[in-house]
Design goal:
It contains two helices and eight strands. The two termini are 20 Å apart. Strand 1 and strand 2 form a beta hairpin. The strands form two sheets. Strands 3-4-5-6-7-8 form a six-stranded antiparallel β-sheet, with helices on both faces. The protein has a two-stranded antiparallel ribbon with strand order 1-2. The protein is an alpha+beta fold and 101 residues long. It has one domain.
């Protein structure tokens, strides 16, 4: 499988997780390297009431709207913001668009 194909599947999985977090799903099904649905991950809730999913890549967590940052303000305004917390550069998804890898 080409790098571009693998990148596309990675992006689709990130967006599947993002959608599950913001649409209230309890589980999210990910795609394997061939684009077929494979494992199912649970959407969990933190002690602060934030929804998140743990993966091999890192933890995907919705933005806390109770913070004082501009991102929290955006979440209060209805934007769907998800942070990908991992070693190395963090990822960020805003309203279904991956902003950082």
């Amino acid at each position: 499988m080409s790098y571009l194909s693998q990148q596309k599947i990675k992006e689709q999985n990130w967006l599947r997780i993002n959608k599950a977090l913001h649409e209230g799903d309890s589980q999210v099904r990910l795609l394997d390297s061939e684009g077929k649905e494979t494992c199912s991950l649970s959407v969990l809730t933190s002690s602060q009431g934030l929804r998140y999913v743990k993966t091999q890549v890192g933890t995907f967590m919705e933005q806390n709207p109770r913070k004082t940052s501009r991102f929290a303000q955006m979440a209060r305004e209805g934007h769907h913001l998800t942070w990908v917390i991992r070693e190395g550069p963090w990822g960020f998804i805003q309203d279904g668009t991956i902003k950082t890898p």
